[in-house]
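Q: Structure tokens for this one, please.
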Amino acid sequence: MSFYLMHRGWMDNPAFRNEPYNRRDAFCWLIEHAAFRDGVTVPLPMGDITLNRGQLTYSTRYLAQAWRWTEPRVRRCLKLFQSRSMIELETDAGQTVITICKYDDYQDAKRVIDAAIDAAATQDRRSSDANKKEGKPLKPLNDDVNGAGYAFAGKIIRLNQADFNRWEEAYQSIPDLKAELTALDDYFHTQNPKNWFAAVSGALKKRNNQYLDGKKQPAHKMTDAEYNRLHSDLVTSNPMGGAQ
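A: Here is the predicted structure, written as tokens:
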């Protein structure tokens, strides 16, 4: 399954103003307005309701106004979504609670990041294959030994701006990418890996997942033991993303 990102509120763009929703729009609206974490408390006149991840609660009157429909049409649409196992409906303290089925499939941040990494690797592999067919040697986009023109230039790790931007986008949970790269560069300078690009990419992916899981660890010089733990399941690949 592949992904693309849309920011919350995109459906309120003036370009769509005053347009009634269709069923596809309505389902997107439900996903956008669902709670993204457990324990979200919604204060209501009849008492507070606590929502879990993937849940939301609105009256049919409110949905009718938001979707520019009549209330009977809203009720029919919700029943249709329920019959197709797209949502679940239940009543809590007189208020209808909507649960998005497969919400984690639609909104899994780790899958989005993995998809971005896979897409980058595929692009690199295609570029590599094209260069091989044309007989062009594989080399960095900028081979200035002083590091001029690089977005990051370490002893081992050297990234042009395009690759740095791609990693920065793929590993968004890492608060300071350059600090992580500096720590990895210090370590790999002593190890002199054959395929530093694949090794560093794998290390950053692990670190990014640690931040996503709430295991925040500031960048620091890596020890041998930490590196071995970090890369216990890393599959070695060539610097352009293809398997050896």
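A few notes: The two ends are 25 Å apart (CA to CA). Confidence is low (pLDDT under 50) at residues 136-147, 218-222, 230-244.
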